[in-house]
Automatic annotation (TrEMBL):
Region feature (Disordered): 162-182
Occurrences of domain RNA polymerase sigma factor 70 region 4 type (ranges): 112-162
Residue ranges of domain RNA polymerase sigma-70 region in the record: 14-74
Basic and acidic residues biased stretches: 163-177
Assembly mode: Interacts transiently with the RNA polymerase catalytic core formed by RpoA, RpoB, RpoC and RpoZ (2 alpha, 1 beta, 1 beta' and 1 omega subunit) to form the RNA polymerase holoenzyme that can initiate transcription.
The protein's name in its UniProt record: RNA polymerase subunit sigma-24
Cited InterPro entries: ECF_Sigma-70_Domain, NTF2-like_dom_sf, RNA_pol_sigma-70_dom, RNA_pol_sigma70_r2, RNA_pol_sigma70_r4_t2, RNA_pol_sigma_r2, RNA_pol_sigma_r3/r4-like, WH-like_DNA-bd_sf
NCBIfam families with a match to the protein in the record: sigma70-ECF
Pfam families attached to this UniProt entry: Sigma70_r2 (PF04542), Sigma70_r4_2 (PF08281)
GO BP of this protein: DNA-templated transcription initiation
GO MF: DNA binding; sigma factor activity
Length: 315
């Protein structure tokens, strides 16, 4: 490998965490984000680096444009599905990678990530760049090929739509969550305990009267009784254990099967009265594959082997 090639690899590696985080926010899928960033790497590998004044900005621009193109295709595919579609959760690790660190630095709640699906690709790109990555309108304009004034209007329009279609709290204000994080964690723990104990009465008490359960396996269910009967009862009866986890920076619940695999991830949105206003339930095998590879029973078994042996173990 030549020095120029090594410099290219090092430059890309330094930006990869941010690029993955950006693409994930744009696409709502870790697998799609990794594909887009891989495409960006191929373009960077073939580019004449001597003509690129700011490699990090060049890579960000390419990633944004690739993500916009990919999102336009994915929107049609997702809308055609009979069952619902939910973003892929990002399960936080104990020892975060560069990608996890970048994701936390540009944190958006899972609920907001779901609302972003309602924006056009250009709106989503401009909103994510401005709100999550603190990009100025001039930089956004260059990345998405719009005028500065147009980008300013796009972000304003996106904020208005999200606020109007959101769940009652200031969607665009990252500094003011709907419920205090510690209170949210307490509600999540009560949900986890009730699911594990299969305590239907307690589960019903946790929901607001107009609670909504949104799953990638079925359509929306509204109302505390419906939420319990259509989702909580069947799921809790088949769950071997429920564990507290952190998804996209917020306390959530992982549902475990008898063999220790993660069978579902539950994101919780709380109302101001401390009850559950909305659940996002992800059970898609595709969405859970990366999570299980990192945190499921097989991953834990591999980790224990590595700890027990001095030599590396290939799992």
């Amino acid at each position: 490998m030549t020095k120029d090639e090594m410099d290219k690899v090092a430059t890309f590696a330094a930006s990869r965490g941010k690029l993955i985080s950006l693409a994930y926010r744009m696409l709502g899928s870790r697998a799609e984000a990794e594909d887009v960033v891989q495409d960006a790497w191929l373009r960077w590998h073939l580019a004449d680096a001597s003509t690129v004044r700011t490699p990090a900005a060049w890579l960000t621009t390419i990633t944004v444009r690739l993500a916009i193109d990919r999102l336009r295709h994915l929107r049609m595919e997702r809308q055609s599905r009979a069952a619902g579609w939910l973003p892929e959760p990002w399960l936080d690790g104990i020892a975060p990678s560069a990608e996890d660190e970048a994701l936390r630095a540009s944190a958006m709640s899972y609920g907001l990530l779901l609302l972003l699906e309602r924006l056009t690709p250009d709106e989503r790109a401009a909103f994510v760049l401005h709100e999550a990555f603190d990009c100025g309108y001039a930089d956004i304009a260059q990345m998405i090929g719009k005028s500065v004034a147009n980008c300013r209007q796009i972000v304003h329009r996106a904020k208005t739509r999200l606020r109007r279609e959101g769940d009652g709290h200031r969607t665009g204000d990252r500094s003011k969550p709907a419920v205090d994080p510690s209170a949210h964690a307490q509600v999540v723990e009560r949900l986890r305990a009730a699911i594990e104990a299969q305590d239907r009465a307690q589960l019903l008490r946790l929901f607001t009267e107009d609670a909504v359960v949104l799953s990638d396996a079925e359509e929306v269910g509204t109302g505390a009784a419906i939420a319990s009967a259509r989702w909580v009862d069947p799921v809790s009866s088949s769950v071997h254990a429920a564990e507290a986890v952190t998804i996209n920076g917020a306390a959530s619940v992982a549902l475990l099967s008898a063999d220790g695999a993660i069978a579902g991830l539950v994101d919780v949105v709380c109302a101001h009265d401390g009850r559950i206003a909305r659940l996002h339930v992800v059970t898609s095998v595709g969405h859970l594959r990366a999570v299980n590879d990192a945190w499921g029973a097989r991953a834990v078994a591999c980790l224990l082997k590595r700890i027990a042996r001095t030599e590396p173990v290939t799992c």
